[in-house]
Amino acid sequence: MTATPGLPPRGARNPGSQGALRHLNQERLVEFLLANGPSTQAELARGTGLSTATVSNIVRDMAVKGVVATSPVTSSGRRALLVQLTDTGDIAVGVDFGRRHVRIVLSTLGYEVIAEEAMALPLGYDVPGAVLQAAALLDRMLVAGAHDRLSVLAVGIGIPGPIDRRTGTVLQGAILPEWVGVRLRDLEEAFRFPVVVDNDANLGALAEVTWGANRGVRNLIFVKIGTGIGAGLILNGLPYYGFLGITGELGHTPVAEQGVICRCGNRGCLETIASTSVMIETLGHGVNAPVSTADILQRGRERDPAVLRVVSDAGTAIGQAIGNIANVINPELVLIGGPLVGLGDALLGPIRRGIQRNAIPVIAETTIVRISSLGDRAESLGAAALVIQGALDGNE
């Protein structure tokens, strides 16, 4: 289960591959069974729109893996095969490392969360130390739930930075520089489990189409607005990773020709005018007490004019960048995540206006923009989904 050097980490599949399509179909069957309970193969075919032959093949594979159990029944006077999800006892672990926190979820293969905990981390934390703290928290969660370590399939980890999928290494450009150079192998040694890794925005997008209210959406952009601004893409029902895995770097889209130099080396990037850190810096000018994200949320809800103006300017710029992407991929849905989502329409309104300014009219009119359905849990749930995908695809 350990990644082979030079190959993409598990869960990093080619969106156009047969394996990716098989996983998508497996997921549709699992979702139908979760929503409707035990069903015959004919009911599964009707409910998912898959052919009876495809359903039969997938059910057979999932039965071999112990994910489903089958039994003969009579339906409408004919012999049929009843399919139901089984409790295999296997556990998928999802871990999200943020700027000041780590969140861990434990899940069954049937997408049921059985434990969840979060822990605060200091700003600029030592990454090896934080990883060991997270591994210790996971151990405590397993003991508290009386779960055997052998039941853990793998640990999915979301990291706030670009990841080279060829090696599983965090690249320059991570919003937390301390993560740069961290390797998959380092994480596996700390957790003492097989590990799969992905960018946090990618996992937010994956969570939305596997756990959230947006299951079944086939073309989606998940935008996480924080100290950095990243986007996860779902195209034709599957995560899109590009050539190296470095996609959705929305924060490094130039939007101001004469803007300041960005940490990536370019000038006038979106991140230099619309990230939460820039909003905090702007609102902190001439103020004795430091401004925090929580202050922005509170003052925004109180309709503070300075906060609303800063949020409006940032939201409009973000919307313009999203509009450029929308013109290329024509998404059905844009979801906004990150710590400022509590501002609601004060943030969404400017983003929508920015999209309208940059997207062609028919795309602007038909693209839905709303807040993420999963809040601050999206990235950890997406990390668990990455493990579940590997288990259903037989990659573990």
TrEMBL record:
Endpoints of the signal sequence: none
Statement: the UniProt record of this protein carries the keyword Transferase: yes
Domain (HTH marR-type): residue spans on this chain: 28-78
Xref: InterPro entries: ATPase_NBD (IPR043129), HTH_MarR-typ (IPR000835), ROK (IPR000600), ROK_cs (IPR049874), WH-like_DNA-bd_sf (IPR036388), WH_DNA-bd_sf (IPR036390)
Record keywords: Kinase, Transferase
GO MF annotation terms: DNA-binding transcription factor activity; kinase activity
A Pfam family: ROK
Family listed: Belongs to the ROK (NagC/XylR) family.
Record protein name field: Putative NBD/HSP70 family sugar kinase
Originating organism: Leifsonia shinshuensis
